[in-house]
Amino acid sequence: MSEPILQCTGLCKNYGQKTALDNVTFSLQRGRIIGLLGPNGSGKSTLMKLANGLLTPSSGEIRIAGNVPGIETHAIVSYLPERTYFSDWMTADDLLNFFQDFYSDFNINKAADMLTHLGIQPRDTLKTMSKGTKEKIQLVVVMSREADLYLLDEPIGGVDPAARDYILNTILTNYNENSTVLISTHLISDIEKVLDEVLFLNKGQLVLQKTVDDIRAEYGKSVDALFREVFAC
Ligand SMILES: Nc1ncnc2c1ncn2[C@@H]1O[C@H](COP(=O)(O)OP(=O)(O)OP(=O)(O)O)[C@@H](O)[C@H]1O
Question: What is the pTM of this model?
Protein backbone atom coordinates (compact mmCIF):
# COMPACT_ATOMS: atom_id res chain seq x y z
CA MET A 1 0.00 0.00 0.00
CA SER A 2 1.23 3.51 -0.77
CA GLU A 3 2.21 5.99 1.92
CA PRO A 4 -0.90 7.30 3.70
CA ILE A 5 -1.86 10.89 2.95
CA LEU A 6 -2.69 11.32 6.65
CA GLN A 7 -1.48 9.24 9.55
CA CYS A 8 -2.11 9.65 13.27
CA THR A 9 -0.19 7.54 15.77
CA GLY A 10 -1.11 7.59 19.45
CA LEU A 11 -2.33 11.15 18.93
CA CYS A 12 -3.36 12.98 22.10
CA LYS A 13 -4.42 16.58 22.58
CA ASN A 14 -5.24 18.16 25.91
CA TYR A 15 -6.50 21.67 26.55
CA GLY A 16 -5.32 22.14 30.13
CA GLN A 17 -7.06 19.37 32.12
CA LYS A 18 -9.45 18.62 29.26
CA THR A 19 -8.63 15.70 26.95
CA ALA A 20 -9.87 16.44 23.41
CA LEU A 21 -8.11 13.55 21.63
CA ASP A 22 -7.08 10.39 23.40
CA ASN A 23 -4.57 8.01 21.80
CA VAL A 24 -5.98 8.19 18.28
CA THR A 25 -4.34 5.96 15.67
CA PHE A 26 -5.49 5.63 12.06
CA SER A 27 -4.35 6.28 8.53
CA LEU A 28 -6.08 7.55 5.40
CA GLN A 29 -5.17 6.50 1.89
CA ARG A 30 -5.23 8.65 -1.22
CA GLY A 31 -8.27 8.80 -3.49
CA ARG A 32 -10.92 8.54 -0.78
CA ILE A 33 -13.74 10.70 0.57
CA ILE A 34 -13.95 10.16 4.31
CA GLY A 35 -16.52 11.36 6.83
CA LEU A 36 -15.20 12.44 10.23
CA LEU A 37 -18.27 11.92 12.41
CA GLY A 38 -18.97 12.27 16.10
CA PRO A 39 -21.18 14.06 18.62
CA ASN A 40 -20.52 17.65 19.73
CA GLY A 41 -17.20 17.94 21.51
CA SER A 42 -15.85 14.58 20.28
CA GLY A 43 -12.65 16.14 18.88
CA LYS A 44 -13.32 16.58 15.15
CA SER A 45 -12.23 20.23 14.87
CA THR A 46 -9.26 19.55 17.12
CA LEU A 47 -8.11 16.82 14.73
CA MET A 48 -8.53 19.13 11.74
CA LYS A 49 -6.54 21.89 13.47
CA LEU A 50 -3.74 19.46 14.37
CA ALA A 51 -3.59 18.34 10.72
CA ASN A 52 -3.13 21.99 9.76
CA GLY A 53 -0.49 22.73 12.33
CA LEU A 54 -2.76 25.25 14.08
CA LEU A 55 -2.36 23.12 17.20
CA THR A 56 0.46 20.81 18.21
CA PRO A 57 -0.08 17.34 19.71
CA SER A 58 0.27 16.87 23.47
CA SER A 59 1.75 13.47 22.62
CA GLY A 60 1.83 11.09 19.69
CA GLU A 61 2.09 12.36 16.16
CA ILE A 62 0.22 13.37 13.05
CA ARG A 63 1.80 13.26 9.60
CA ILE A 64 0.66 14.44 6.19
CA ALA A 65 2.29 12.50 3.35
CA GLY A 66 5.03 11.57 5.83
CA ASN A 67 5.64 15.13 7.09
CA VAL A 68 4.80 16.88 10.32
CA PRO A 69 2.31 19.72 9.55
CA GLY A 70 4.24 22.82 8.44
CA ILE A 71 5.18 24.78 5.34
CA GLU A 72 5.57 21.67 3.17
CA THR A 73 2.18 20.28 4.11
CA HIS A 74 0.39 23.65 3.76
CA ALA A 75 1.27 23.48 0.07
CA ILE A 76 -0.68 20.25 -0.38
CA VAL A 77 -3.54 20.65 2.13
CA SER A 78 -6.61 22.77 1.45
CA TYR A 79 -8.45 23.55 4.69
CA LEU A 80 -11.92 24.87 5.31
CA PRO A 81 -11.98 25.95 8.96
CA GLU A 82 -15.10 25.75 11.11
CA ARG A 83 -15.18 29.55 11.30
CA THR A 84 -14.54 32.05 8.54
CA TYR A 85 -11.32 34.03 8.76
CA PHE A 86 -12.06 36.44 5.90
CA SER A 87 -12.73 40.12 6.46
CA ASP A 88 -16.23 41.42 5.85
CA TRP A 89 -15.08 44.16 3.47
CA MET A 90 -13.77 41.59 0.96
CA THR A 91 -15.73 40.94 -2.23
CA ALA A 92 -15.99 37.51 -3.83
CA ASP A 93 -13.48 38.75 -6.41
CA ASP A 94 -11.06 39.86 -3.67
CA LEU A 95 -11.22 36.40 -2.21
CA LEU A 96 -10.38 34.76 -5.54
CA ASN A 97 -7.42 37.10 -6.01
CA PHE A 98 -6.27 36.47 -2.44
CA PHE A 99 -6.26 32.71 -3.04
CA GLN A 100 -4.47 33.13 -6.36
CA ASP A 101 -1.73 35.15 -4.67
CA PHE A 102 -1.32 32.64 -1.86
CA TYR A 103 -1.62 29.27 -3.57
CA SER A 104 0.12 28.29 -6.78
CA ASP A 105 -2.32 25.38 -7.15
CA PHE A 106 -5.40 27.65 -7.18
CA ASN A 107 -7.52 27.46 -10.33
CA ILE A 108 -9.17 30.88 -10.51
CA ASN A 109 -11.19 30.09 -13.63
CA LYS A 110 -12.75 27.07 -11.98
CA ALA A 111 -13.63 29.15 -8.90
CA ALA A 112 -15.14 31.94 -11.02
CA ASP A 113 -17.27 29.41 -12.94
CA MET A 114 -18.59 27.90 -9.74
CA LEU A 115 -19.49 31.31 -8.30
CA THR A 116 -21.39 32.14 -11.49
CA HIS A 117 -23.23 28.84 -11.28
CA LEU A 118 -24.22 29.59 -7.69
CA GLY A 119 -25.48 33.05 -8.73
CA ILE A 120 -22.94 34.86 -6.54
CA GLN A 121 -22.08 38.38 -7.69
CA PRO A 122 -18.29 38.88 -7.83
CA ARG A 123 -18.53 42.50 -6.60
CA ASP A 124 -20.70 41.81 -3.55
CA THR A 125 -18.91 42.14 -0.22
CA LEU A 126 -19.05 39.34 2.33
CA LYS A 127 -20.74 41.79 4.73
CA THR A 128 -23.85 41.89 2.53
CA MET A 129 -24.09 38.13 2.05
CA SER A 130 -26.13 35.56 3.97
CA LYS A 131 -24.32 32.98 6.12
CA GLY A 132 -25.05 30.24 3.56
CA THR A 133 -23.67 32.30 0.67
CA LYS A 134 -20.48 33.00 2.61
CA GLU A 135 -20.12 29.28 3.28
CA LYS A 136 -20.57 28.52 -0.40
CA ILE A 137 -17.83 30.98 -1.40
CA GLN A 138 -15.41 29.57 1.12
CA LEU A 139 -16.02 26.05 -0.05
CA VAL A 140 -15.63 27.11 -3.69
CA VAL A 141 -12.20 28.66 -3.09
CA VAL A 142 -11.02 25.77 -0.94
CA MET A 143 -12.13 23.19 -3.55
CA SER A 144 -10.58 25.20 -6.40
CA ARG A 145 -7.12 24.34 -5.21
CA GLU A 146 -5.52 21.25 -6.75
CA ALA A 147 -4.61 19.87 -3.34
CA ASP A 148 -3.67 16.36 -2.22
CA LEU A 149 -5.76 16.57 0.93
CA TYR A 150 -8.89 18.63 1.55
CA LEU A 151 -9.90 19.10 5.18
CA LEU A 152 -13.46 20.40 5.34
CA ASP A 153 -14.69 21.23 8.84
CA GLU A 154 -18.51 21.41 8.75
CA PRO A 155 -18.75 22.63 5.16
CA ILE A 156 -22.51 22.54 4.64
CA GLY A 157 -24.05 23.40 8.01
CA GLY A 158 -25.58 26.71 6.93
CA VAL A 159 -26.43 25.83 3.36
CA ASP A 160 -29.95 24.97 2.13
CA PRO A 161 -30.61 21.37 1.00
CA ALA A 162 -30.60 22.16 -2.73
CA ALA A 163 -27.27 23.98 -2.46
CA ARG A 164 -25.92 21.08 -0.36
CA ASP A 165 -26.40 18.75 -3.30
CA TYR A 166 -24.64 21.20 -5.63
CA ILE A 167 -21.79 21.54 -3.16
CA LEU A 168 -21.44 17.79 -2.70
CA ASN A 169 -21.33 17.38 -6.46
CA THR A 170 -18.74 20.14 -6.54
CA ILE A 171 -16.63 18.20 -4.07
CA LEU A 172 -17.03 15.02 -6.09
CA THR A 173 -16.19 16.56 -9.42
CA ASN A 174 -13.33 18.73 -8.22
CA TYR A 175 -11.09 16.31 -6.57
CA ASN A 176 -8.90 14.00 -8.56
CA GLU A 177 -8.33 10.33 -7.95
CA ASN A 178 -5.12 10.94 -6.01
CA SER A 179 -6.64 13.39 -3.57
CA THR A 180 -8.38 12.67 -0.32
CA VAL A 181 -11.25 14.63 1.20
CA LEU A 182 -11.88 14.49 4.95
CA ILE A 183 -15.26 16.05 5.84
CA SER A 184 -16.56 16.61 9.36
CA THR A 185 -20.30 17.03 9.56
CA HIS A 186 -23.45 16.36 11.54
CA LEU A 187 -25.50 16.16 8.32
CA ILE A 188 -24.72 12.50 7.78
CA SER A 189 -27.70 11.50 5.68
CA ASP A 190 -26.99 14.36 3.25
CA ILE A 191 -23.37 13.44 2.86
CA GLU A 192 -23.15 9.69 3.14
CA LYS A 193 -23.89 9.10 -0.52
CA VAL A 194 -20.53 10.62 -1.43
CA LEU A 195 -18.48 8.94 1.31
CA ASP A 196 -16.18 5.95 0.78
CA GLU A 197 -15.28 5.57 4.42
CA VAL A 198 -16.14 6.93 7.88
CA LEU A 199 -14.35 7.58 11.15
CA PHE A 200 -16.45 7.76 14.33
CA LEU A 201 -14.98 9.77 17.19
CA ASN A 202 -16.43 9.61 20.67
CA LYS A 203 -15.04 11.65 23.58
CA GLY A 204 -11.72 11.98 21.81
CA GLN A 205 -11.36 8.29 20.98
CA LEU A 206 -11.61 6.63 17.60
CA VAL A 207 -14.39 4.06 17.97
CA LEU A 208 -14.83 2.97 14.35
CA GLN A 209 -13.10 3.20 10.97
CA LYS A 210 -14.92 1.39 8.19
CA THR A 211 -15.88 1.70 4.57
CA VAL A 212 -19.47 2.67 3.90
CA ASP A 213 -19.91 -0.56 1.92
CA ASP A 214 -18.73 -2.62 4.90
CA ILE A 215 -21.15 -0.80 7.21
CA ARG A 216 -24.05 -1.56 4.89
CA ALA A 217 -22.95 -5.21 4.50
CA GLU A 218 -22.10 -5.90 8.17
CA TYR A 219 -24.84 -3.95 9.93
CA GLY A 220 -27.46 -3.76 7.16
CA LYS A 221 -27.74 -0.04 7.97
CA SER A 222 -26.99 3.35 6.58
CA VAL A 223 -24.16 5.32 8.21
CA ASP A 224 -26.78 7.73 9.58
CA ALA A 225 -28.73 4.87 11.22
CA LEU A 226 -25.56 3.34 12.68
CA PHE A 227 -24.45 6.72 14.03
CA ARG A 228 -27.81 7.25 15.75
CA GLU A 229 -27.56 3.79 17.30
CA VAL A 230 -23.94 4.12 18.48
CA PHE A 231 -24.42 7.62 19.88
CA ALA A 232 -27.99 7.35 21.19
CA CYS A 233 -28.37 9.70 24.18
N1 LIG B 1 -9.61 26.13 22.98
C2 LIG B 1 -10.13 25.20 23.77
N3 LIG B 1 -9.93 25.25 25.12
C4 LIG B 1 -10.43 24.31 25.94
N5 LIG B 1 -11.15 23.25 25.52
C6 LIG B 1 -11.39 23.15 24.21
C7 LIG B 1 -10.89 24.12 23.27
N8 LIG B 1 -11.29 23.74 22.02
C9 LIG B 1 -12.00 22.61 22.18
N10 LIG B 1 -12.05 22.25 23.48
C11 LIG B 1 -12.70 21.06 24.05
O12 LIG B 1 -12.16 19.92 23.39
C13 LIG B 1 -13.18 18.97 23.10
C14 LIG B 1 -13.23 18.70 21.60
O15 LIG B 1 -13.67 19.88 20.94
P16 LIG B 1 -13.80 19.96 19.34
O17 LIG B 1 -14.14 21.37 19.01
O18 LIG B 1 -12.59 19.36 18.73
O19 LIG B 1 -15.05 18.99 19.09
P20 LIG B 1 -15.97 18.79 17.79
O21 LIG B 1 -16.15 17.32 17.65
O22 LIG B 1 -15.40 19.55 16.65
O23 LIG B 1 -17.33 19.45 18.28
P24 LIG B 1 -18.58 20.08 17.45
O25 LIG B 1 -19.24 18.95 16.72
O26 LIG B 1 -19.46 20.63 18.53
O27 LIG B 1 -18.03 21.15 16.54
C28 LIG B 1 -14.47 19.56 23.67
O29 LIG B 1 -14.68 19.01 24.93
C30 LIG B 1 -14.19 21.03 23.76
O31 LIG B 1 -14.93 21.62 24.80
Answer: 0.95
